[in-house]
Amino acid sequence: MELLKTPKASAYLAEKGVKRSPNTLAKLRTIGGGPTFMKFGAEVYYAPTALDRWVEGRLSRPVSSTSQLPDRAA
Q: Backbone phi, then psi, for 43, in 5-degree steps?
């Protein structure tokens, strides 16, 4: 299993077109809402598959107009 430390996880996401800095990933580990991660001692690791699932879970369905998106204010 390939595991990525935070800076490499950030680079992996950037290669996929999703720019999230290592600091943002660290903040999301604290407040929640980020990709799942694992710890080995004090080190934090991300599995590429977990990063892919996180991105897929945050994407909307394909739309041709913003009016087709759910109303976030509700």
A: -80, 145
Output the six-digit token pair for 42.
């004090």
Q: What is the distance between the alpha carbons of residues 74 and 68, in angstroms, rounded to a whole number?
A: 15
pTM recorded for the entire structure: 0.84
Angle in degrees, CA 11, 44, 1, rounded to 5: 75
Residue with tokens 């934090």: 44
In the DSSP assignment, the letter for residue 68 is G
**Alpha-carbon Rg of the chain, whole angstroms?**
14
pLDDT digits (tens, 9 = 90+) for 31-74: 999 999 999 999 999 999 999 999 999 988 888 888 888 876 54
Residue 27 backbone phi and psi in degrees, to 5: -65, -40
CB 35 within 8 A of CB 53: yes
Record the tokens describing residue 4, joined without a space: 């990525």
